[in-house]
Specification:
Mean pLDDT: 90
Structural class: alpha/beta
Strand order of the largest sheet: 2-3-4-1-5
Low-confidence stretches: none
Radius of gyration: 22 Å
Order of helices and strands: HEHHEHHHEHEHEHHHHHHHHH
Distance between the termini: 51 Å
Number of strands: 5
Number of helices: 17
CATH architecture of the largest domain: 3-Layer(aba) Sandwich
Largest sheet: 5 strands, parallel
Shape: globular
Number of domains: 3
CATH superfamily of the largest domain: P-loop containing nucleotide triphosphate hydrolases
Length: 378
């Protein structure tokens, strides 16, 4: 990943490039922003630039030995930590990040813009909740105690540090407080407030904004080609709201989004009819989903409730839903009012937290359905 490959983010690129030119290399950066804005690509491009032996004015050279190793994400001084499953199906062996490193490299090289759900699907997490386990702290310390092999810097890139087990986070904190010489931590987060507070205070914060409309339009055009009309591209850019993953989702009408919409519609119809039998049947189906999919659904549902509330105002510029979602909103939105919108959103958020805390998903889903049955008729 080079800086030139990153969609938009001109100011952030300039800041990172200039800091290297000025010799200002913070030992820890907390790179934060919403999903799909290019945080991980920026971290990878920055790491490559730090290690490049023939840096150009605005990017890495792409030809030196270091760059050739970065082409495969196999530089010996670049280390990764990322959420994983506890163990593979049918195995009793605990996994470390290095055990899934070949899959991680393959996944990023295919597309550096991805979501936690996509990574979870790729490693077949199924009903497992992926995280950075406590045992990973020993590997982090071991790697950082090694001398730099080829580069001037050792780089530890942590994707989603908010998913660290508290024990692992505390071990990382100790290393960040007294880092080995020429060690750089790049912590890429979507929920900076969930990162250990003492880690936040010891890292240089870098906020990555949503992708600007012009850059997003160019990226969308590169996907759909010249056949796409200006109005079609404009609509996709609006739906994306600065998130490249949402733009791709709008173009491809992803199966995950459609599945979530169909379940949402089923819940609301059952709740309106107070069909307890079908509520229980849906709870059984929902329990078979993996936990990451379950959490993703509740996040989607809370957002869709909010969009339905806004839909009532007939202001398309503040709505971010696709054609299928709009079709359902025509009849559903009148039931989302000032009396119940906040309560409904809160209930979906609570259900998501319960799934994260490993509460039985059948209980969570059925209890939520019963609450919605009351709220939807307020």
């Amino acid at each position: 990943m080079f800086f030139k490959d990153i969609i938009g983010q001109k100011d952030v690129k300039h800041l990172l490039l200039q800091s290297v030119k000025d010799g200002y290399i913070p030992h820890a950066r907390l790179i934060s922003g919403i999903e799909g804005v290019g945080k991980l690509p920026l971290a990878l491009a920055y790491a490559r630039y730090l290690c490049c032996t023939d840096r150009h004015e605005d990017d890495s050279c792409g030809k030196c030995p270091s760059c050739r190793q970065f082409n495969k994400l196999a530089h010996p001084d670049l280390h990764f930590v990322f959420p994983i499953i506890n163990r593979k199906k049918g195995s009793s062996k605990d996994l470390y990040c290095d055990d899934l490193l070949p899959q991680w490299r393959e996944f990023i090289l295919k597309n550096p813009y991805f979501s936690l759900q996509q990574w979870s699907n790729f490693i077949e997490a199924e009903n497992s909740q992926i995280m950075i386990y406590a045992r990973e702290s020993d590997e982090i310390i071991r790697k950082l105690n090694l001398k730099a092999y080829e580069s001037e810097y050792k780089i530890m890139l942590v994707w989603l540090p908010e998913r660290m087990h508290p024990s692992c986070a505390n071990s990382l904190l100790k290393v960040i407080e007294e880092p080995p010489a020429k060690t750089v931590f790049l912590l890429v987060t979507e929920s900076p407030d969930r990162v250990l507070g003492t880690i936040q205070s010891r890292a240089q914060r870098l906020s990555v904004p949503p992708i600007d409309e012009a850059s997003m339009s160019e990226a969308v055009r590169s996907i759909i080609g010249q056949s796409g009309s200006d109005s079609e591209i404009s609509n996709i850019v609006h739906l994306a709201s600065g998130n490249y993953l949402k733009a791709v989702d709008a173009i491809t009408a992803s199966e995950d989004r459609q599945r979530n919409l169909e379940l949402f519609k089923s819940i609301m119809r059952n709740c309106w009819r107070r069909d307890v039998k079908n509520m229980k049947a849906e709870a059984e189906k929902f329990a078979a989903w993996g936990r990451e999919k379950q959490k993703a659904f509740f996040s989607y549902a809370g957002n869709y409730v909010r969009e339905n509330f806004f839909y009532r105002f007939n202001l398309p510029e503040i709505n971010y839903i696709n054609a299928d979602e709009t079709a359902f909103a025509v009849n559903y939105s009148p039931y989302i009012t000032e009396k119940n919108v906040i309560s409904l959103i809160d209930e979906f958020a609570l259900a998501e937290r319960h799934i994260e805390a490993n509460v039985n998903p059948r209980m969570v889903f059925f209890d939520l359905s019963m609450k919605i049955a009351v709220l939807i008729k307020k």
